[in-house]
Amino acid sequence: MKALPITNRRTRAESAFTLLELLVVIAVVVTGAALLVPALAKTRTTSPAFQCMDNARQIALGWTMYASDNNGVLAPNSDGALAGKDPLHPSWVSGMLDFTTTADNTNTAMLVNHSLYPYGAYLGSYVGKNPAVFKCPGDRSAWAKDLTKPRVRSISMNCFVGNPTRSFTGSSKYPVNLKLMQVTAPALMFVTLDEHADSISDGWFATAPDELYQLVDYPAAYHANGCGLSFADGHSEIHKWRDARTTPVVQQGQYLLLDVSLPSDQDVLWLAQHAIGAASYP
Question: How many domains does the chain have?
Answer without folding.
Answer: 1
